[in-house]
Every structure is written in structure tokens, then in C-alpha cells.
Amino acid sequence: MGKNVFSLVAAVLLSSTLPVYAQNELSNFTATGRGGVATTFATDYQAIGINPANLGRVGGATVAFTVGEFGAGAGSQSLTRQQLRKFIFNTSQGLTLADKQELARAFTSDNALNFNADATTLGLAVQLPVIGGIAISNRVRTAGHVALNQNAAEIAFLGRNAPIYASAAAGNLPLVTEALAGTDLQLSVLNEFNLAWGTRLIDLPLFQLSAGAGYRYIQGVGIVDIRVRPGDLSAYSSMSPIFDLDYGGMASNPSFNLRDGANGLQPVGKGHGFDLGLAVEAGKAVRLGLAVTDIGHMTWEGNLLTANDQKLKRLKSEGIGSYNFIKEAAEIFATGSDSLFTYQTGQERRAELPTKLRAGAGLRISEFFEDGLDVTLPLNNVAGNITTPFVGAGLDYKPTRWLRLSSGLTGGAGYGVSVPLGLTLATNVYEAGISTRDVAGLVSSKNPYLSVAGGFLRFKLGGKTQ
After folding, report:
1. How far is Cα 423 from Cα 76, in angstroms, rounded to an integer?
2. Residue 41's closest CA among 52, 26, 54, 53?
3. What is the pLDDT of residues 413-448, one digit of tens each?
4. Is 104 helix (H, G, I), strand (E, B) or coil?
5. Most buried pick, 37, 302, 395, 429, via CB within 10 A?
């Protein structure tokens, strides 16, 4: 993988601490303005990962391409906007004891933090006679979710001074599944190379049916997947050297597949994913879409650690000491140094991709107005998937031929109810725009949701612009 791609990941994940969670649309600024409602809206390369059957539509641009579409978002149902902003913009700022105590209370939540950041470095789609539409793209996709019970939140921020250590008799700490039940800590960072194809199967005057498929080769930059339930612990991590984690004595274990800085910014996993989709156009106004995305699995190999249920370990440190939450939380929960768990080293681990079912319906009232309804269901519970079903209603309105406004109402996927807003400048050849998943979340003190997506080099050549 080129250094420029890894540098992009580093900038998004380590500098801004917006390392990631939820859907695939944040690198699609037009869909972000509708809150992610995209199953019937997305066309050309923007249909990758959403519904490849839309590539089979007739009448769009002959060629569409982009450079550098991006998006990032972070939301919480327990932190204040001021706290969330510090985790994004003040990662080097240290925490006082009062800060630690306050954050330990705030992070005791089923949705303490959900975050995601996507970037499409290059996207290209071409419509070919008979064959249909073909699209390729490179996308860096990151996603994460933090849910901590009271013990986990206190240990994370107070370390060895957490109340559970004081209340437990010496040498008689509880099992991890007893002390931390209800805790999820998930992070996934993937670099994808995508190929998708869609074609028209039935083409009648008032009914058209298209089908599509997509394939992606995936390089794994990092994963943390810790889920604790009563009597059940699933915990493993595999993190690139770019995260600069301290593995302590585990690094010298001969069974540990160490990837360090000397090996450069290489991936620590690889995998293959597939998308399947159908799209229907009934009459001149109704559109329906159905897709299953991210079918497949990853194989994680580098810096791999796994853990089973065991006695809770006492930390030596005083817990997270700055607003660089992801790095410091990973040290506590996912490495072999000063960690809550005794990890075992491993050579490889297979993990399913975050498979989702997407269903959508759209109504194209005129060339100036289109609305739609989307439902997205998680089909498994793995790092990178949405936590709960997503439901959204979105619309596009063109008051003039060169301006498109987008908005809607969405909810689920670990976030509260959101009101998105997007603005796109569009001509027959060029599009540029900026959008947010939630206008109120940008300024609300409670349940904040900070998100932005943009694209300024999107071009569409030939055909009729949709």
C-alpha cells in the first residue's frame, strides 16, 4: 500500500481522534446530506458499497470520476458537546483528577462514543453499451463503537485507583465477564480496492430491473473487537505499527507475529468482500432497491492478541491521562503491556466483515425533486458494523438547475434522531458540495453529533445528469 494512503489514515485516526463507526456513506457527500439515505439515490461510483445494481441504470453520465471525497463524524449519547470536541481537537491535553472522574461517569453508557471517517481517494465509473456500468474506487474506511459499564469506565479513567480494586479483597478480583459485562470496545480500519458492476436485466416501458455485484480486496490496518457479556468474553486485537502501541514483553514472544516500525506502514490483515444488489424502476417515478453488502471475511495476522475469560487484572497505571482516547484505551484494553487482560499471542484470526442488509424506496416526483426511505439492518455483531438498525427518510430538492439541497430525518445505528443538511453545486459536468449528518448535533450540548462530508472534484461527462 502506498505511503500516501497510510498517511491519510494516520491523519484521520491519530491526529484528530475521529477513528470511526457506522455506515459507508460518509465519503459520499451527497448521501451524507440526506443522513445516509442512499439505496435508491446513489449512482455511478457512489453506488459502491451501497447498491451496485444502480450502476445498471440507463440515462446517467457516461463517465463519472472523483478525487478526494471525504467525511468524518463522531457522536455520543452521554458526553457533552464540549467533552466530545476535546476528544477531537485537543488530543494532547492532559486530564485532571476531576476530568477523569467526570469522564468515568460520562462513559458509563451503551453509546458513549460512535465515530467514523471515510475517504475515497479515487472513484471512477463508466457506462458501456450492452455490458452496463462498471466502477472502481479506493476507499479508506474506519469505524468504531465504545460502550462501557461502570466498572470498565472507572478502570479506563482511574486505572489502579478504580473503586473495584479497592473493594475487592487482595488476590480475589472477579472474572472479567462478571466485572465488565455490557462493555463493547470496537475499532476497525480498512483500506479497500473496489470493483463493481451493474446491468439492466429487464427493460420494459414501465418496468426496469437491474442487478449488480461488487468485489473488494481489503487491507486491514487495524482492529480491536472486545465484547463482554455475562459468562462470555470475546476479545482480540491486531493493530498496525502506525498506532504505536506498547506490547511490553509480548513483543519478544516467539509465537507473536510482530509487525513493528522497522517493517514500515504495512497492513496487518487481508480479506475479500462482496456486495449484491437489485434495483427496480417502476413507471417514471418509483425506485426500489435491495442490497446485501460486506459479505466475506478478514484474516488478521500481524500483532495479533486474543483473550478468554479470566480474573480481572490490576492496572499499574492511573488510566487514561489525556484526550487521546483511542490510543490510550487500546493500551489498557487491547495490548499485552499494562492491560486488563492476559492475552495470548496468535498467528492469525478469521473475522467476518460487517454484513448489512439495505432496503430502500424512492419517489422521483420531477427532475427537481426526489425523496426516499432507507432501512439498514446489521446482519452480524462485529467491529465496524452498526449497533442497531438504521432508518431514514431523505430528499433532494433543486430550486435551480445548478443548486441541489438535501435533508431528511434519520435515526438508529447508535445515534439519536438526526436532521441532516447538504448543499451541492451541480452543472452538467461538475459537482461540489458539503454536508453534515445532523445540524442540531453540531450545536447541541446533549447528544452531540459532529459530522462533515465534502467533495470538490466530482465530474460527470456525457449522458443526462441525474
Report:
1. 25
2. 54
3. 767 788 999 999 999 899 999 999 899 888 888 889
4. helix
5. 37
